[in-house]
Amino acid sequence: MAGRIALLREKQEAAHASGGPEGLRRHRESGRLPVRERIDLLVDRDTWFEIGALALPELRREKPIPGDAVVTGFGLLDGRRIGVIGIDSSVVAGTTAPISMRKQGRLIEHAQRHGFPLVLLCDADGGRMPDVSGWRFSGLPLDFTTFLKPPPGQPVVPRAAAVLGPSYGDSALHASTAHYVVMVRSGSIALSGPSVVEPAIGEKVTDSELGGPAAATEAGNAHLVVDTEADAMDAIAAFLSYLPQNSAQRPPVAPPLPPGRDPKDLEEIVPLGTRSGYDMRDVFACVADEASILPWADGWGSSLLCALARIEGRPVGLVGNQPIVRAGALDPAALAKEKVFVQLCDTFGLPLVFLHDVPGLMIGTQAERGGILHGYEALVSAIAEATVPKVGVVLRKAYGGGHFAMGGRPTRPDFLYAWPSAELGFMAPETGIRTIHRRKLETVLAEQGPEAHAALVAELTAEWISEAEPWEAAAHLSLDDVVEPGRTREVVAASIDIALGGLSLGGAL
Ligand SMILES: CC(=O)SCCNC(=O)CCNC(=O)[C@H](O)C(C)(C)COP(=O)(O)OP(=O)(O)OC[C@H]1O[C@@H](n2cnc3c(N)ncnc32)[C@H](O)[C@@H]1OP(=O)(O)O
């Protein structure tokens, strides 16, 4: 037995050698940490439990490929179980071959079957050749039903990914299955890397141009960019802290905290004039518990902000228009982002809070070619189908399709409120009067001159705005109430509590 144990230890040591001294030196020199050091940064001390370490590729080479270039196992993160897949890019560029695919598939199956989050540490990768090419390709043990989605009847588990280097092929696909992707500033993520892109389509491009932070956040491939790998692990821990272990459980409730900013400040933050800008993040701070806001994909469709937050300790999803970006108009990217966020919150039981200040949907050729019609339909359906509590507050304006895209009445919100300053209607006043009074305005301009034209515009606008005020909407119960700005947080918190069936705050969920 002593001899067999010695042999096991020898094999274990080889398995932990990663790319060997030379591979690890090159890896560190590129500013990246070895995969097991990454895992140490992620999981609670002394909780790492690895499986599959002795895996080896089917197709052996002269140089060893320990673990088949991937590390898999389990740990605790802030005391809760997670599964981890860490690509070991110090070995053959972390490439994927049949055994490493099986290894990853086993981890995914464990996480799904036993119901805990999956964390993916992505770096380098792509299919290993010739292991996956030629006749071998058709026999790959790829199971897209486990790779992409839980099998029918099993709850969904949260997936979070960290992009820690140039991540292509399988690494990038892993990240694209994740509910949250954080990347380091030096990382990149794309379907194929520059060394494949140039020979294939003749485009000469750098890693950073192709999938660096600017490209990745604009496309929604990464939700947050951080400086260091340690920051990336902290961001993953923060993200998972809002979510239950799986979609069959309730989200964890934290001790209630006061808001980050006095809700009374809302009276000053949001200007009365509908054309003045302000930062919706200031509104979030007045509504959410202090230090509880985690921005989600600010760089994607940035005229809309999404964030995970807590209100009186309860995790929620905040959705707000951002008036300082294209006046908060919703373009195809903003609609696509909102849909994914709404589905994330709906999957994991987080109530949705919509803070409306929206001039409408983006119109014109660019928006049409960007698929705004499909995007709008998909979003409005996702909001209508969401079964978590939905609470909306119209702060300033909510026009037309923009209002519905923010959880307006037809999408069946549980509660819908407005501030006394709110305007609601089918179209913004300036656009509306120019549409329906076009001929009359042209005649007045031609026959009576610009002053008379301006006076008529002002008169028609005032008439339109008076119709758009919240009083009639409240009188017809299109709104549940008109509330003072300073009461927004308290009204939202009470509405969520009622919509959850009165489960007491911080109680046993
Ligand atoms: C659907 C899909 O999978 S599409 C994906 C297509 N794949 C890609 O786009 C990835 C293309 N590859 C790359 O861009 C780069 O190789 C990276 C970014 C992954 C890694 O770059 P680097 O860290 O500089 O590593 P480098 O390219 O030097 O490779 C390291 C070693 O792995 C080997 N290697 C790299 N890629 C592969 C591969 N696909 N198959 C087999 N071996 C490979 C290299 O030959 C090299 O071996 P050596 O040390 O014996 O010379």
Question: In a few lines, what is going on in this structure?
Answer:
With 509 residues, the protein is an alpha/beta fold. It has 21 helices and 16 strands.
What's the assembly state of these chains?
Answer: single chain
Q: Are there runs of 5+ residues with pLDDT below 50, and where?
A: 504-509
Number of strands: 16
Total number of helical segments? 21
Q: Largest sheet, if any? A: 8 strands, mixed
Roughly what is the average pLDDT, rounded to an integer?
94
Bound molecules: acetyl coenzyme *A
Shape category? elongated
From the helix content, strand content and strand pairing, which structural class follows? alpha/beta
* End-to-end CA span: 50 Å
Strand content: 15-25%
Instruction: Tell me the helix content.
Output: 25-40%
Alpha carbon gyration radius = 26 Å
Keywords: Ligase
EC number: 6.-.-.-
Domain CoA carboxyltransferase N-terminal: 1-255
Enzyme class: ligase
